[in-house]
Amino acid sequence: MIYSVKGVRVLGTIVAPASKSHAQRAIAIAGIAQGESVIYGCGNSRDVKASIDIVRSFGINVTEIGDQLIVRGGLKYPKSAIDCLESGLCLRMFSAISGTFSNPIILTGHGSLVNRSMRMVEQTLMALGVDCETNNGKLPIKIRGPFRQNVASVDGSESSQVVSGLLIAAPRNGKGLTLKVENLQSKSYVDLTIDTMRQFGVRVVNDNYSSFYVAPEEKYKATTVCVEGDWSGAAFLLVAGAIAGKVMVENISPYSSQPDKNILGVLMNVGANLSIGANSIEVTKNELRPFSFDATHCPDLIPPLVALAANCKGDSMITGANRLINKESDRGFALQQEFKKMGIEIVVSGDVIIVYGGKIKSALVDSHGDHRIAMACAVAGLTSGSAVDISNAEVIEKSYPGFYDDLRQLSVE
Asked: What are phi and psi of 111, to 5 degrees?
């Protein structure tokens, strides 16, 4: 599929999509909790659908009624391999959960996930006494528990999702769990995990992000959860308003634990006009100055930040590029290559990205099979002289299936 974005002015109000990060965590935990949980507003992204299918593989009855997801928890041993599709979060959550079973479970995936390293998952589970076999450090991974230890050290420099997965699985362990963590990245995503666990009645003791403790008596209780709006998807819409018109995004809270709410600080610094409500943000175009921002703990912000920087008058610097390699694509390289086609020079050097602001020109670009690259190119195309065409554009279904429809709704032409 090729999607074409013309240089247009945007104006309007959009309801932010559901946070797949919150929804996936809630679905996994609801599957563990005994009893019937109701989750409102999960959305229909591919990653959320993968989470639903996985808990069903564990013998859970899941019913979808409108925007309600009714989950009757109580995991059972799966009869077949667990397919995580392309979701790294699913892989890391359900590999930890699989480690609580005494019979072997195989986890597989598709697309870019099959090329991602499973070493961190393997090493951490083995430290807890779980048997693990991988395909030379990649999928498929065969896991056989249970946890024979209840203390492990984790290097959090590559991903916080392993920490989140182990914390989510901890109440099934029955012996409690202590994780000693070094170099933790994306701390706010661990906060989101802890907040979601708290919604289901489990308390996690967080010692300044250096260790986490879940007591043996902690058990999940079935409950009702409303999924937050997604700051990761909203960031693209807010940038669209800052560079091309005026956009209000509803269903996002500035009090969220989601790390991508840091887009607000950047928009303030570049000079965009902002109006912040309790559950909405409005952004209006203004002359934009360049910025510096450390995205180490929110690397998913880098693609929309590059689209923003491309429209700033001057050179912007974004750090945290090392976090981009092990994603759906090598995002640093993909952004550099595709924005060059649109006339924007980007230099990636080690952990630093320099974006030289300029004029977006018409081009045919490629998504690299990455939803966030496709969305970044689409937003940048709003200020192009004519049109930006994006090939393999359907990849946005992974996180934000309605993204192009929302852009059409905002276009005043």
From this structure: 60, -140
pLDDT tens per residue across span 81-111 = 999 999 999 999 999 999 999 999 999 999 9
Q: Which amino acid is present at 266?
A: V
In the block, residue with structure tokens 């923003």? 308
The residue assigned the tokens 């309790």 is 278
Domain(s) labelled CATH 3.65.10.10 in the chain stretch across 2-17+229-410, 20-226
Is the separation of the CB atoms in 311 and 360 below 8 Å? yes
Cβ partners under 8 Å of residue 209, min gap 6: 181, 184, 187, 190
pTM for the whole structure: 0.94
- Other C-beta atoms closer than 10 Å to the C-beta of 198 total 11
Mean pLDDT for the chain? 95
How big is the CA angle at 20 (ends 56 and 351), to the nearest 5 degrees? 125
* Catalytic site residue from 191, 230, 260, 300: 300
Whose CA is closest to 139, among 116, 158, 156, 173?
Answer: 116
Cβ pair 287, 261 in contact under 8 A: no
300 carries an active-site annotation = yes
CA dist., res. 399 & res. 397, Å (int): 5
CA dihedral 90, 201, 230, 357 (to 10 degrees): -80
20-226: CATH topology is UDP-n-acetylglucosamine1-carboxyvinyl-transferase; Chain (3.65.10)
Instruction: Tell me how far apart the alpha carbons of residues 299 and 315 are, in angstroms, rounded to a whole number.
Output: 19
229: DSSP letter: B
Query: How many angstroms separate the CA atoms of 379 and 407, rounded?
Result: 9
Helices 302-309 and 371-380 cross at an angle (nearest 10°) of: 20
Q: Which CATH superfamily is domain 2-17+229-410 in?
A: Enolpyruvate transferase domain (3.65.10.10)
Alpha-carbon distance of 31 to 221, in angstroms, equals 11
pLDDT tens figures, 364-400 = 999 999 999 999 999 999 999 889 999 999 999 999 9
SS3 state at 19: coil
